[in-house]
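#struct-help
A.M.: can someone run this one for me? Single chain, 529 residues.
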Amino acid sequence: MKTKEEILQLIHQGEGLKVEAKSAKGGFPDSLWESYSAFANTDGGIILLGVAENKKDGTLTVEGLKDPQKTKKDFWNMVNNRQKVCLNILADSQVHLEDIEDKTILVVEVPRVERLLRPIYKGMDPRTGTYRRNGDGDFLCTMEEVGSMLRDAMNSSVDSEIIEEMGQDVFCQETVKSYRQIFRDTHPTHLWNHSEDSQFLRYLGAATLGKDRMFHPTVAGLLMFGWEYEITRKFPNYFLDYQERKQFMDSRWTDRITSQSGDWSGNLFDFAMKVTNKLQADLKVPFVMRGNFRVDDTPVHKLLREAVTNTLTNADYYGRRGVVIVKDEHGFAFHNPGNMRVAPEDAIQGSISDPRGSTLLKIFSFIKFGERAGSGLFSIFQLWPKIYHLEPTIAESSESVPRTSLFLPTSSEGPDLRQMVKLYDFEQEESIVREDPFGDVPLPSPFEKRWLTGYPGAPKTTAKKSLRGMGDDLAKEIKRILSENPYCSIDALVELCGVSKSTITRQIKAMPELVHRGPKKGGYWEICR
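D.P.: on it. Structure tokens below:
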């Protein structure tokens, strides 16, 4: 419930996305119920009865109500009248009288209604009485928007629906094979690994038995594993598009993947695999070890998988314009048809998870694609600012075509690698990282000789390429190696530089800028400037 001070502030700000003023001098205006519908179907808002808007400059003037108590009573009578509005969604505390500037107004706080109750509409026909809020106005929804709300109001997941008119021949067998291989690698002892494809798909929720006792695809199965030309039989507007651009807002793309190209399956699984590789291709990877191996799967890699999973599992494939994912010099953009089924702030806070494609989400989660599935946006909004020092944004379309867009901005300086390393999650394994002596950032533990030559930037040859007698060149090479891995041992330097141990030792002694810290075994090198 808004306080008097908060209401005063709203009046000073004027009408907007969440504020609507009604004079109510001549009684309740019919447009009141348009605003009621619009706020309920969008992000909620406040209707101020007894407040007039100056059409010239948009300022609000408190006029007050002639009989406030009667106005409040009449409002309750009308909001419960099914010929006026389809449903009363208000609690007593959300309709209250307030004294403002020695005058009394009626404040109606309309909440964003949950998807199971949408659409909220004026009159008795959702096709002619459903409104949405855009800017400071209320706009009649299109049939496409109304249809999207009605589908989202279903209790069951839309993607669990069986498609009886299709058989298992709609599945791309190569896609199923690829998925099963990843599933097998992720769950090597799982009982499903011994099942035939038809039974395996049934376990996933990608297929189910029909009335004819034969296996048929579900909507999720068709989207995940089907051929594009089969998918478009069910979803005529189905379209997947990945664009890579050199410059922001440049219509020209340097790399593109679309589901209609005909040279691949065009389904969600293969698209996710292809696009994720593209998104992750140029990411900077800090030097972190896990045992004897470098960890290349950074928190940013995981967050991008979360974003792809979130986009594909929340898309309304009945909607127009399709899924579009864009990578450019300013960051990453993920667009999917359909507005969010919960309030954006609830999704960001992780308090409510209500994916449009819950079966799709389950299929992705089995292969650890989007490992924080169900709380993906929470992870993104928590971790992305720590790595790039820029805030991600998510927005629902205010146009006639429902659409959700997620933006993950990047900077020219790239990610903060020191902050990124703090976010690695190794599930409480010990001895994976070692505390950084220069601060509180974990750094890799010392790698062993057998793995050393594999790190990025290491020479391609070892002893065959000798730096003996090269003096300054050997010193530069040692500095380069130690700057990339301060924990490098003398024996490792011998192998990397292709010289004897005595040569390395002699050269290091001649380099006063190199200082060894800590114990002889397991210490680190510091390059003093």
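A.M.: thanks! Residues 426-469 have pLDDT under 50 and may be disordered.
D.P.: also worth noting: The first strand starts at residue 19 and ends at 22.
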